[in-house]
Design a protein that fits this description.
CATH architecture of one domain: Orthogonal Bundle
Structural class: alpha+beta
Shape: elongated
Strand order of the largest sheet: 3-4-5-6
Radius of gyration: 24 Å
Order of helices and strands: HHHHEEHEEEEHEEEHHEEEE
Number of strands: 13
Protein name: Helix-turn-helix domain-containing protein
InterPro entries: ArsR-like_HTH, DUF7347, DUF7351, WH-like_DNA-bd_sf, WH_DNA-bd_sf
Distance between the termini: 38 Å
Mean pLDDT: 86
Low-confidence stretches: 6-13
CATH superfamily of one domain: Winged helix-like DNA-binding domain superfamily/Winged helix DNA-binding domain
Length: 318
Amino acid sequence: MNPPPPRKTELSGPATGNEAFQLLSDETRLAILQALWEADDPVDETPIRFADLRERVGVDDPGRLNYHLNQLADNFVRRTEEGYELMDSGKRIVRMLLSGTAIDDPEIEPVAVDISCWYCGGQPEWSYREGWRYLECTNCEARCVESFPPGVISKSEFPPSGLRDRTPNEINEADRIWGAHRRALVMDGVCPECAGEMPVTSVSVCDDHQPDWEEYQFCENCGSIFWMLVSHVCERCKYQWRMPTLFYPSRHPAVVAFFYDHGIEFDLATYEQRAQLLDFEEELLSEDPLRIRISVPLEDDRLWLTYDERMEPVDVTR
């Protein structure tokens, strides 16, 4: 007799999502969170006294401050015998504000960076606008996705706070690491926004895939240069991510070992090795059940990985 499936944990908290938004809609409460954040010392976490907090926030009426503290208590602020301190949820709110995602809208004009276009080997330029970073090739008009302007070889979200006190090349490197870890989380089924469950919701296979590989132009039938695309959607916050199936072998230890045996420390997070994806070959073995085989060639050697509808590997052959 099979055991029953494990029950998913159901969490209940002091405030729902709507209530949390309402709690943070007051300027005094936001000022309290900021004051507690500024008073926080990660090395010496000592709560701040009521009188000190009142002075930092600039509230003359003690009753008014106490009222707002009561509204924040159990959700964002912890009251102790020594005073008040931010809960982790409160710290996340302040970090979001400090990251600039809620207040800043900076722009950086295109500037050359020390990498090569993985399509043509030309010189890309890095730019930033409307919360997105862009890599645009100055040598080709590659358009791997229909929604990208010509020449944009990569586009992704990046917090404005990551721009501060960095050169363009340092920003580009931070962006590379940021994106690689977020992509790895998605492939592992964990939402990079809220840590909720983020399963594969669909695997799209173009029925008549005809991209122009010579000019690196997307297929007009599916809107992508890639034949097969995987979609993940977070069950908690609805965050979505879509990427080619070709990324998934990079997470398998057999692939890392395969390249290592040939003297290559393989890491698709690096721009230099991103071009390796273009050498991977896909094969649709069956549609029901879905089975996709990806071939990884290297010199005179080859590695095959077969995936199911959840993009879980079911077979590895060398």
